[in-house]
Design a protein that fits this description.
The complex is a heterodimer of chains A (117) and B (115). By secondary structure, chain A is mainly β. In chain A, 0% of the residues lie in helices and 47% in strands. Chain A has no helices and eleven strands. In chain A, the strands form two sheets. In chain A, strands 2, 4, 5, 6, 9, 10 and 11 form a seven-stranded mixed β-sheet that branches. In chain A, strands 1-3-8-7 form a four-stranded antiparallel β-sheet, with no helix packed on it. Chain A is globular. Helix content of chain B is 0%, strand content 50%. Chain B contains no helices and twelve strands. In chain B, the strands form three sheets. In chain B, strands 2, 5, 6, 10, 11 and 12 form a six-stranded mixed β-sheet that branches. Chain B has a four-stranded antiparallel β-sheet with strand order 3-9-8-7, with no helix packed on it. Chain B is globular, with a radius of gyration of 14 Å. The termini of chain B are far apart. The chains are: A mainly beta (117), B mainly beta (115). Chains A and B meet through strand 4, strand 5, strand 9 and strand 10 of A and strand 5, strand 6, strand 10 and strand 11 of B.
């Protein structure tokens, strides 16, 4: 079946602009995660949705970052007043169930490469 | 303190040989899970193998096996019979049961397989 998809694959914007990044999870997956990967680093957690609600947004770096998942499927990560330091690959992942013990594997999309000039 | 430590920035191996990628972790949870992902140059994170903290046997998935040493808090990935297509970044990650389902990743190891 279809995996996690993310659009756009690349986004170039200017400092101060607003951007939206979209994630379409695997059908039937109730959990959705956003991570950010800077060059030479592993992914870092941003936010986790269980269904429509954000169960954990402790990874969002500041209030310029916001994410929604209004119908419990597609999610949009929104970044206001972008800064050059926001440049990174934004990865989305989904998993089948909330807090499953074994193993509730997260499956990742191809990412969106955001470049802020 | 780093929760996941991958001490090898890069590793080289010849085709058909085995290679071990190191991963140590730090947690006070009794129940946790360890994952390995592969990230080729295309950027997508590909799930390889999982080990639960209560699993008594080391996990295996085809050419991948996980050398789990709980007392030493290590979860090394062993790739047998390396192939050219194994060249990629490899990330170790942990999910702790005290939190939600989020993963904490290491910095990764770049593996290059030569003919």
């Amino acid at each position: 079946g279809a995996g996690v998809s993310q659009t756009p694959s690349n986004k170039v914007t200017e400092k101060g602009k607003y951007v939206e990044l979209r994630c379409d999870p695997i059908s039937g997956h109730t959990a959705l995660y956003w991570y950010r990967q800077s060059l030479g680093q592993g992914p870092e957690f941003l936010i986790y949705f269980q269904g429509t609600g954000a169960a954990d947004d402790s990874g969002l770096p500041n209030d310029r970052f916001f994410a929604v998942r209004p119908e419990g499927s597609v999610s949009t990560l929104k970044i206001q007043r972008t800064e050059r330091g926001d440049s990174a690959v934004y990865l989305c992942a989904s998993s089948l169930t909330q807090g499953a013990q074994v193993p509730d594997t997260q499956y990742f999309g191809p990412g969106t490469r955001l470049t802020v000039l | 303190a780093q929760k996941i430590t991958q001490t090898q920035p890069g590793m080289f191996v010849q085709e058909k040989e085995a290679v071990t990628l190191d991963c140590t972790y730090d947690t006070s949870d009794q129940s946790y899970g360890l994952f390995w992902y592969k990230q080729p140059s295309s950027g997508e994170m590909i799930f390889l193998i999982y080990q639960g903290s209560y699993d008594e046997q080391n996990a295996t998935e085809g050419r991948y096996s996980l050398n789990f040493q709980k007392a030493r808090k290590s979860a090394n990935l062993v790739i047998s019979a390396s192939q050219l297509g194994d060249s990629a970044m490899y990330f170790c990650a942990m999910r702790e049961n005290s939190g939600y389902s989020t993963l904490t990743f290491g910095k990764g190891t770049m593996l290059l397989v030569s003919p």
